[in-house]
């Protein structure tokens, strides 16, 4: 299962973010690894430059 992580201009991608996201996705979908070829994770900040942790969005697309 290939995991592709995409972020918008307001979320800074890092190795730590990538590793954490991969662990979460593999934990949630690992039992489907034989059926899922790729998971695209889209992380975005709904309010742009405003501060706060409650305005983040995660959308995942699973390819079979």
Arithmetic mean pLDDT: 92
Total beta-strand segments? 3
Q: Looking at the structure, what is the overall shape?
A: elongated
Treating each run of at least 4 consecutive H or I residues as one helix, how many helices?
A: 1
Percentage of residues in strands: 25-35%
Largest sheet: 3 strands, mixed
**Separation, N- and C-terminal Cα atoms:** 10 Å
In total, the number of domains comes to 1
Helix content: 10-25%
Please state the CA-atom Rg, rounded to the nearest Å. Answer: 13 Å
Q: Provide the structure class.
A: alpha+beta
**Assembly status:** single chain
Q: Could you spell the SSE succession in H and E letters?
A: EHEE
Side-by-side strand order of the widest sheet: 1-2-3
Task: List the uncertain runs.
Answer: none
């Amino acid at each position: 299962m290939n995991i592709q992580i995409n972020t918008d201009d307001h979320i800074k991608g890092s190795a730590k973010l990538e590793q954490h996201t991969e662990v979460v996705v593999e934990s949630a979908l690992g039992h489907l690894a034989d059926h899922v070829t790729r998971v695209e994770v889209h992380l975005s900040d709904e309010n742009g430059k405003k501060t706060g942790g409650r305005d983040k969005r995660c959308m995942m697309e699973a390819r079979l």
